Amino acid sequence: MCVSAFSERAVLAQEPVVPIPQDIPFTVASTFGCAVLTGDGAVINTASLRPGQSTVAHGLGGVGLAAVLGARAAGAYPVIAVDPVPEKRERALQLGATHAYTPGEAVEAIHDLTSGGAELAVEAVGSPKVMAVCLTAVARGGTAVSVGLPALDRVCRSRR
């Protein structure tokens, strides 16, 4: 990611470091490091989602699914999940999304379901195209939050 995130060693300030007990598998600990904090944080902290507000998550990887979980925990309704992969949409429904759509059908369905657009749209893909879709899916006066990481070649292009 061009930030030494995969380094074996790093010099860090002690305040943000959280020791992980040795009995916690890395597959579980890894969600603590990024996905849950980013997706849930986008909904709860950045957008200050309130109960009853409509929310849509575009991109259903770890971060997008955490946004779905955060929206559900905050009492959002509806909680809409958008992804081209059927299994990811199904997982989002299992985790609390109330509706799930493919990208091609999402904007019209969101507008119909919410009477004009979602109050919060979270982009968890890292794509300018998907962010543009978020902006068309969000209601006037609503909030769009982008937390997706762009493709590595786009991020590092200027550094080469």
UniProtKB/TrEMBL annotation:
Molecular functions (GO terms): S-(hydroxymethyl)glutathione dehydrogenase [NAD(P)+] activity; zinc ion binding
Stretches assigned to the Alcohol dehydrogenase-like C-terminal domain: 62-151
InterPro entries linked: ADH-like_C, NAD(P)-bd_dom_sf
Gene Ontology CC entries for this record: cytosol
An example Gene Ontology biological process: formaldehyde catabolic process
Cofactor requirements of the protein: Zn(2+)
Keywords, comma-separated and alphabetical: Metal-binding, NAD, Zinc
Full protein name: Alcohol dehydrogenase
